[in-house]
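From the shared-data thread, chain only:
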Amino acid sequence: MGTKIAALDTPSVSPNNSIVNSYLQLMKKTLVLLSSIGLIFSALAIDARAQTIIVDDSSPGFTASTNWLTGTGGYGGTFRYRLTAPVSDAATWSASFKLSGTYKISAWWVSGVNRTTSAPYIVYHSGGTTTVNRNQQVNGGQWNVLGTFNLNSGVNQVRLSPWTATGYVIIADAIMWQQ
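Structure, as tokens:
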């Protein structure tokens, strides 16, 4: 990593003493290695505080009624879908967080021409709830940002309600929280 160990760069040992020179070279390499490991540990400590959690429709953190059918494809190989209707029958993604903080929340869906243009994702956060509508006819097969929200430590949720304009299919696939 370009680390210099000045005390060992120019040893004051006679060149004829190969054992001492070998030992000093080994110590220099060991100190450089330990230094680089220390840098790696520092980076890991920072990353350990940041959290990225993905809950897919096949994950334990996902729940939906039997009205949500399973399709093949999507994130993780499956997705859930149902017809839009004015009913309370939300699909729910839940994740537990060690740390409170600001999280970017994104959704993944499989797009199609029969999908709703106003899928209502209900994000639960420290200030209450926010409904974010997304057009599922476009931008499928990728992470689509719902927004950035302050979340408390513990369990947090995103729900997807089928209560939107009727005559369409709504897709519940995966949610990602990133701190």
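The mean pLDDT is 83.
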